[in-house]
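Let's practice the habit of predicting before peeking. Look at the sequence and jot down your guess about where helices and strands might fall. Then scroll down.
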Amino acid sequence: MIDFCERCETIELWVDPEPNAQLTLIWLLDYLRHHANTVSKLTLVQANARIGGRPPKEIAEWRLTAVKILNEHLETASAAWQAYRAPTPEAWFDLLSSDLSVLPQLRQTVQELLEELPADVTALGATEMRMLELISAGDARPFDVFPGHRKRNQQRVFEYWEVGSLLDGLARSPAPAVSGLDEGPFTLEMHDDANRFEQYKRSKLKLTALGEAIVARTEDFSRHNPIHRRWGGTELTNDRLWRWDPANRALIAP
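Done guessing? Here is the structure:
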């Protein structure tokens, strides 16, 4: 990439507002700050709507401002990237007290990622909780609870394969919160088998008694199931479970 950039006179970075795109941006700027010649050519175009999937003609008509990348952009991005990679989420939480305005979509990303930490009462993140809430409303099939444009689940942190894995975790854990998921796991192999994939899509999802209690905020998923996953550089386990208190917007240490 650096070799390619060396041949360019100017370079525009067009970036989506979604959290994964913002993480890519801070990683990229942290990397590029060691390449002064490339940085000197950089400008940032920060979109307010998702670029991917839009027809080229529509994007060509957008009149978005290209902002010159300066040292303050690089410093903010580097601090954020190091915070995300840290072994605890404390530095990422501390970004909320920082001036992140040079990267205008970053503050929202910080907030949305914190909301995907295990919640203080339920030990589930925002996307998992929204999936359970939609299932509790009745008549839900798997893709009814996946996030997406103009869908009832508006969470943006996780993408397609990650969301499928989250639903697997809710339905296939030792003490499941969801019943009725007839196929899985959510893998490429399942997608490549037309019969299995069709059966997966037709699954009629319901909450178990545990799922109903979690939606009512009277149960904790981690009391009944093992937790072992990563959030950025943080390893989350049952005995080391960093939590997020959404009511008070507070980080709770294990």
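How did you do? The mean pLDDT is 94.
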